[in-house]
Sequence to fold (393 residues):
Amino acid sequence: MHEHDTDISVVGAGPAGAWAARQLAAGGMRVALFDASHPREKACGGGITGRALDEIAAAVPAETLDGVAVEDASFHAGLGDEASVDLRPRGASRRRLLVVDRRSFDAALLEAAIRAGAEHIRERVTDVLVGSDGVRLQTNRRSYRCSRVIGADGVNSLVRRRTAGPLARADLSIATGYFVFGETSRDVRVEFVSAPPGYFWSFPRRDHLAVGACAQADAARVGPLAALVTERIRDAVRPGRQLVRYSWPIPSLGPASLAREQPAGDRWFLAGDAAGLVDPITREGIFFAIRSASLAAEAILGVADAPARYASALRREIYPELSRAARLKRGFFSGPFTRLLVEALRQSQPVREVMADLVAGEQPYKTLKRRLLATLEVRLAWRLLLLEMGVAR
Fold:
């Protein structure tokens, strides 16, 4: 059995793992990055928000990414079969949202990690043992030792199962849909659905569309969700186009689960989906994956007590935003709030600007009520307040 010593191992080479490895290697650490399958495509719309692009700009400038910039594209939201509303910005307003295929985006981050000095080990980690004297990783080929480990191995994280424990089904969403090759568009579409409570999306990529639907796992099944997607795209997809089906779970933690989260311990850290860091409403996780990777690297490269420093940073910077979204989630996709929202979207350009910024990651939940009040849509802001307080559904 061969052993390989290194300062830190990162399990998973998606955005969280690759960026953590890049930051740690750039900081002078010996980093082993384990992943046998990345870069690969993923069940994801592929929207990279402006704040995510800012986080990686020093190593992966936005202009080097092969994507579709949608600042000037049509951005639609709707409810059920009702007419959608164009959310594109007016005048000087511009929001950044780059739609990429995940294979090329993840490859760019992985290459940045390797350039910084991380070693990419193309082996699948099959077991993790965290002990008082270090960490032992078993792969499908051999055994490795390191001082610390970062679990960035996704929603079904092995590192999480061996440390903090797995995510419960109630804390998961299901995403399913199709990559539609041979079709493209300049439209980003988001459509609220109430049965099951969730949303349908269509994002344009260079040579195909990424379309799908997402809902909470304890309220939906893959089959009915896939049927919803098929129905939505039936008239939009020309005969003969190649449809590639995908399905994938997504973390979608409630407020109580977020309050209980343990993202780090002695010699181990969780980042990205493995840490449950996904917006429960939009299901956007790429920014939180990259930002949590930065925070983990900063803590590890710091003076001392890295697990506590990392947990504190998440509780200060990321958990409050996700908790606000979790409190709003149930009413966001059903009931009076959703219809009131769509009505306001049709009638008010300022409300359209607010909600498009929310989807694009430019509008935090912390100031959402205040900004809606500024649009003079008082009923909408009041309903949002009731949802946040748990008074309305």
Remarks:
- The longest helix spans residues 102-116.
